[in-house]
Design brief:
Oligomer: heterodimer
Largest sheet of chain A: 6 strands, mixed
Radius of gyration of chain A: 13 Å
Strand order of the largest sheet of chain A: 2-10-9-4-5-6
Number of strands of chain B: 11
Strand content of chain A: over 45%
Shape of chain B: globular
Number of helices of chain A: 1
Distance between the termini of chain A: 39 Å
Number of strands of chain A: 10
Strand content of chain B: over 45%
Number of helices of chain B: 0
Structural class of chain B: mainly beta
Shape of chain A: globular
């Protein structure tokens, strides 16, 4: 069945780089696109960017200077890297399948930016 | 960026009551390809968002038919015909017509 699972460090120091992995199963990354969405505690979600099925990428302009999304199709993984982290980057980070209207989401990974 | 304004921000309902949530967009969400990329999600406490409605009015797989979506252009509505206890949580609309994709501020559905 379709699954997405985020993984990565729970704690990141201010000014450092966040690296997250979304591992998918039940579908191919060459047929479906994956987006990253984050959500500060108690607030609404924010779309960060997406990896298209053809390998192209798109980013939220508010994050574009700090954000990079890549993939390894052989490992069924999509990666997120965001640099210069600050405390307001704290929150839960999700990956979600785009086609069919965001029908599947990962469980999310909580990231805290703190020294 | 497209701003999605949801009303009300808090909705108190009794079990069995029918309720509606409004989502108004600062720009038309009709895409040049003829689709309107407007979605509705429910996020229960401690859980990931769950897709309810896609492309304005299409019911997601496994979603009860007491949920329905309607609207066009800039005005959209999610209706729940007979609230059940499992429907409690925060509802979000989202648009994917214009970059960057954006979410509404959310509507919290609670028991009266």
């Amino acid at each position: 069945q379709v699954q997405l699972k985020e993984s990565g460090p729970g704690l990141v120091q201010p000014s450092e780089t966040l690296s997250l992995t979304c591992t998918v199963s039940g579908f191919s990354l060459t047929s479906y696109s994956v987006s990253w969405v984050r959500q500060p505690s108690g607030k609404g979600p924010e779309w960060m960017g997406r990896m298209w099925y053809d390998g192209d990428t798109a980013y939220n302009s508010a994050l574009k200077s700090r954000l990079s999304i890549s993939r390894d199709t052989s490992k069924n993984q999509v990666f997120l890297k965001m640099n210069s982290l600050q405390t307001d980057d704290t929150g839960t980070y999700y990956c979600t399948r785009v086609e069919n209207g965001f029908d599947y989401w990962g469980q999310g990974v909580m990231v805290t930016v703190s020294s | 960026d497209v701003v999605l304004t949801q009303t009300p921000s808090i909705l108190s309902a009794t079990i069995g009551q029918s309720v509606s949530i409004s989502c108004r967009s600062s720009q038309s969400l009709l895409d040049s390809d003829g689709n309107t990329y407007l979605y509705w999600f429910l996020q229960r406490p401690g859980q990931s968002p769950q897709r309810l409605i896609y492309l304005v009015s299409n019911l997601g797989s496994g979603v009860p038919n007491r949920f329905s979506g309607s609207g066009s252009g800039t005005d959209f509505t999610l209706k729940i015909s007979g609230v059940e206890a499992e429907d409690l949580g925060v509802y979000y609309c989202m648009q994917a017509t214009h970059a960057p994709w954006t979410f509404g501020g959310g509507t919290k559905l609670e028991l009266k």
